[in-house]
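Task 17 of the worksheet. Students: predict the tertiary structure of the chain below and write it out as structure tokens. Keep your answer in the requested format; marks are given for formatting as well as content.
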Amino acid sequence: MKRVAAVVIAVTALALAPVAAAEPTPQPGTPCPAPDALTKLPDRSVLTCSAGTWAPFANPYPFSEIWQSYGSGITLHGQGLRNPEIMSGAWVGTPLDPAAVCGVEQASVVAAGEVGPTQASTGQPGQPLDFQVLPVVFKITLSGDCLWRKVG
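Model answer:
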């Protein structure tokens, strides 16, 4: 009887546990924020902003000076690898929602085969975040519901 009670309690707990909602992602055919912007989906496929809506990106080497991130972020590689998706220089992340917070985590190649420590920057809710994409950046994660533009 104790075993049955334990199973009933466990099943009840699972049934009442909050279900994590899937992170909203841009979808083909839905509105996009800026012409020529790119974004990455969780399956690593890329969408491009064309004629005001997201469309599949056909080029195998995505590169843009305008990216949209959402939720926990998109991860790109830079000039520390072949076929960079993002270039070093001055960038600004602009929240697409007044409550959104733009954030950046990046790490650069510091020597042959060696990646340096991660550097992070986080903006304030609803405020743009100015930052520098590091030279020879290996990988960078852009997070928050934000539009990122190269400005220099």
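Marker's comment: The first strand starts at residue 38 and ends at 40. Helices lie at 2-16.
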